[in-house]
Hints:
Elements: E1 4-8, H1 14-26, E2 29-32, H2 52-57, E3 78-84, H3 92-100, E4 107-113, H4 120-133, E5 138-145
Parallel strand pairs: 1-2, 1-3, 3-4, 4-5
Amino acid sequence: MATTLVLYFLASGTSKRMAQTIANLTRADLHEIKAQAPYTQADLNWHDPQSRTSIEQHEHHGRIACVNDFPALDHYDTIIIGHPIWWGIPPRLVANAIDQLPLDGKTLATFATLGGSGYQRSQSYVQRVIDQTHHQVTIIPGTVLSNLR
């Protein structure tokens, strides 16, 4: 039985490919973080200030409902969360997943899929979410992955 769980949120498929590779390399279980209201291509149009993602990402304390079908975390020691970077931070959906998960006593690592910027702002955001939820976790600094094969 795996002691690591890789959770991922995908918009275009890149995060899923990266998550699958990491899960294979670490012999981890894999699970997708899904929005209760799935995103459409129009929702993902970051050039449109009225698109769903543009509006959601600018709601600084917003949370986007995710499907609560996460596996029980009892036997996992390490949780790895993969996500795209939207407006410099993880999608608000990822914050909601962190809120919902019983992460106390776990090690949390994150990775992002993006080509254009670093991960410092995203890492700070994840740390803030952890601090707000009062989870007692060990956080391994995240990174941006691209073209992982």
